[in-house]
TrEMBL record:
Gene Ontology process terms (BP): inflammatory response; innate immune response; regulation of apoptotic process
Superkingdom field: Eukaryota
Protein name: CARD domain-containing protein
Primary location recorded for the protein, binned into one broad class: cytoplasm
Species assigned in the record: Oreochromis niloticus
UniProt domain CARD: residue ranges: 14-97
């Protein structure tokens, strides 16, 4: 059975959207708190990571920390992050797509 790839990954094994746009996401994601709330609710991050990331002083530091730990878990966590970004950062995702 063939299943079409989602919007964030290609069938040819190209980089995941969040990997491909890592630098832009770190620089441009501004509304990180509701994204962290959703990641916690979806169990992509645990309470300890949520608290650690929330305590960081800037949005850039928070997104950078997400990339350095929870998003290293694999494509499932990256895909969840991508879907949450589409919800909270619609214009940014549209701009990068």
């Amino acid at each position: 059975v063939f299943t079409a790839p989602g919007p964030s990954t290609g069938a040819t094994g190209q980089k995941h959207f969040v990997d491909e746009h890592r630098v832009e996401l770190i620089q441009r994601v501004s509304n990180i708190e509701p994204i962290l709330d959703d990641l916690l609710q979806e169990e992509i991050i645990q309470q300890e990571a949520y608290d650690k990331i929330s305590a960081l002083p800037t949005s850039q530091a928070k997104v950078r920390e997400l990339f350095s730990s929870p998003l290293k878990a694999g494509d499932a966590s990256k895909e969840a992050f991508y879907q949450i970004l589409k919800k909270h950062e619609k214009m940014l995702i549209k701009d990068l797509s």
